[in-house]
Structures are given as C-alpha cells and as structure tokens.
Amino acid sequence: MIIQNGEDRSPSVSSGRSPTRKKQTQKRVQRPTAAAQDTIEDDMDFLELLGNDGNRLTEALYTAYSLCRSNETDGQALCSNLVRIASGVGKVLHFVAHNYEHLSRHGRRNLGAKSLDQDKSDFAIALSVCARAFMSVLVGMAKLTESNASTQLSSLVVCELVNMFKSALLSVASSARQTAQDFLSQPPQPKRSKGNATANLIKESVSARAVAHLLISFLGFLERSNPVHQKIFDGFVFVLFERVGKRLYYCTFGHHRSASIETNILPPPEPKDDIETAKRDAETLAIRLEVKVLVLILERAMGLAPNHMNPQNARSSQSNRVSRNMSMKSPATASRARLSSLAKDRLQRTLVACMYGSKADDEFLDVLTKPLPPMRLTSMQNVAKVEDKDVEAWFSEEVWRLVGWDILAREDGW
Question: Where is composition skewed (Basic residues) in this entry (predicted)?
C-alpha cells in the first residue's frame, strides 16, 4: 500500500493529470517536440505519486532536460543529475517490484497484453517510465561527451548505471521471493490425480519477468558503435554474471557459496523443524522462479555480445553483412554474428570467477570487471594516512600488494 500524508493513494496516471491539460493536449497538433514534452510531463506526474523516490527522480529528470536544452552545457551539473537519474531508476524499480500487487490492480490493466505498451496498469506504466528515464541518461551522456573531452564525468555515470542494473537484478530476486512466499502462504489445495499433480505448482513470477524484460530492453538500447555504450554493456554483463554465478553455484551444489572452503565442501545441514523446512522450501521456490528470468536476460546479453565485445575489425565486417540482409520485418534485435574466441574465453573466465568467488578485480586477469569511478564529483582522491616513520615499509607493502611477488618464488622466473 502506498501512503502519502496519512492517506492511501494509488499511483494512477489518470488521478494525477489535470483535465484541462488533457483537453489541450488532444487539441494540440502533435509535433515530435510537443509530443515528447507531453510524455515528459506525464511521466513526471506519475512519478510524483510514487513517494520520495519518485519525487527525487522527477527533480533529476527535469534538471537534466533543462541542462540538455541549454546552449552552454554545465558538465558537472549534468553529470550529477544523470547520476541521480540512474540511482533513482534503481530505487523506483525496487519500489515498483515490492508493490506489484497494488500497482497491477490500478490503471487500465490488460490481462492479455503481450507488451508494456499494451498493458496500461500502473505497474506497466512505471516500468515504461523507467525505460524512458534510462533513455534520457543515454541522451544526456551523448550531450556530456560532446561538451567535455574528459572521460571522467561519463565514467561516473557509467558506474551508477551499472549499480542501477545490479539493483534491478536484486529487484528481480525480490519479486521472485515475494511470489514464492505468497504462493506458499495460500491454504493447501485439494489433492489431484497423478496426471494433474503439478497443476498446483506456480510456473513463474509475473513481476520478476516484467522487470527482466525491462532490463533486456536496456541492453537493446545500447549502440554497438558508441564506446561509452560498450563500457555500459560490459558493466551490465559483469553484474549479470555475478548474479548468474551465485545462482549457478547454488543450483550445482545445493547451497550458497561460503567464505570458507571447509564450509563449502560440507553438505548443507538438515532443517531442524517445520519452520526451517518451510523457510528452505520458500527459498528454493524463489530461486527457481528467479533463474527462469535470469536465463532470459542472459540469452539476450549473449545474443548482443558480438556487437560489443568482438574486436573492432570483426564488428565492422559483420555489421556490413548484416545490413545487406536487414529489412523492416526483421530488425536487428540480436546479432547474427558469432562471438569471437577471445571474447568467449573472457566471458567464460568471468563466469567461473563470479561462480567460485575468484578475485575478479585482478587487473592482469582477462575477465570483465565492475567499473569503478575514477573520481568523485568536485573532489580528488586523498593520499593514504601513514605515519612518517612507517612510509618506507608501507610503500614496499603496497608495491608488492599491487604488483605481486609470485615471480620471486619461482626459480625460473627471471
């Protein structure tokens, strides 16, 4: 339930719009710019009904739109608001996933809808608003890179987008968990014949699948020829592999990965009572629902990987071949090209590292890594606080820590 100022409020778009503005919009000649402006205003009307997270996202979107339309771009201000938009999308997705039942019952729900465009429930509208907010970040980043040759500001936005994608994956897991809990909390159904024994089992989490399809659309928005988009894609794939690796470990060994090797090799303890058994059953069902939609995202990511991860010369030759065979009836939703052996090896190493918890932050290991911001806005990195008398020892330790000294232990290493 959504509560604002002590009152229950449904985030229905119709309740937040002015009838006067609606009539004016219908009478207005819908030029592209005017139509886009109306969409922006409608999105902001809707976001205001989602509480504090929606309000903060609205403010960031409005400021970013104003900065993008300005002749002189303030790079710092634009970057700051793009970061706020990316962060806000993750928070709104978390809110929407937790309020699926409430949001899906409001608005004009279409049970037979096959896409978000056809479904007019508040849940579907919220996901569409998040999709347009993500596109706004991409547009803002294009403006940012045009006006600022430095990559530091755009790197900050890339990092926040990756954090948003990771947060959205957690929202997928949360939706699956909520679906499992709701299903198992229902009173037991009467027993059926053996032929219908599986009829009572829930097949999917609708809310988790919807959020997953939104993330799939995020991957599809990224352009193969844009270097910044390639960094975003790499970051998205890394956090996806992090999640997939954790679930792959669970599905392979029947328990979650532990920090110690001793705990990992021991079989999981048996549940002590009915409460613990019910808790484990709910977790198992939630993971089964989650992995079904994770495969959807993974399949899309692997289909697009050749566009972003193959060597540049291979991508250009493949795009030329694809363009000759393309038509309006068969848009290039996924690459028909094969993933290069180098890119495939890199992805496989990344998955193994994410699954078993290897140190994926090793700069000399050819795996995908989560992008880290090179700086903070309006700040520079501080040097380490070390006592003067300990500087020499500290320096030696840091050099060997960063570079490694394995070669010193090998007789043939020189």
Answer: 19-30
Residue 225 three-state SS? coil
Nearest to 109 by CA among 210, 8, 4: 210
Burial of 312 (0-12, 13-18, 19+ CB in 10 A): exposed
Distance CA 28, CA 263 (A): 67
24 part of a folded domain: no
Q: What angle do CA 94, 164, 383 make, to 5 degrees?
A: 130
Distance in Å from the first CA to the final CA of the chain: 67
CB 371 within 8 A of CB 164: no
Residue 325 or 208, more confident: 208
Q: Which two tokens stand for residue 76?
A: 């710092």
- pTM of the entire structure? 0.76
**Torsion angle of the four alpha carbons 381, 385, 386, 388, in this order, in degrees rounded to the nearest 10:** 90
Cα distance between residue 90 and residue 211, in whole Å: 11
Query: Would you say residue 399 lies in a domain?
Result: no
Q: Residues 93-133: pLDDT tens digits?
A: 999 999 999 999 876 555 555 555 567 799 999 999 999 99
* Euclidean distance between CA atoms 41 and 30, whole angstroms: 14
Concatenated DSSP letters for 164-179? HHHHHHHHHHHHHHHH
Of the candidates 182, 174, 175, the one whose C-alpha atom is nearest the C-alpha of residue 207 is 175
Contact present, 151 and 225 (Cβ < 8 Å) = no
Q: Are 191 and 268 in contact (CB under 8 A)?
A: no
pLDDT per residue as tens digits for the range 377-414:
444 445 556 555 565 666 667 665 765 655 555 555 44
Q: Is position 355 within any domain? A: yes
State the Cα–Cα distance between residues 153 and 376, nearest whole angstrom: 9
Which residues constitute the domain of residue 262?
3-19+35-187+201-314+334-383
Q: 393 in a domain, yes or no?
A: no
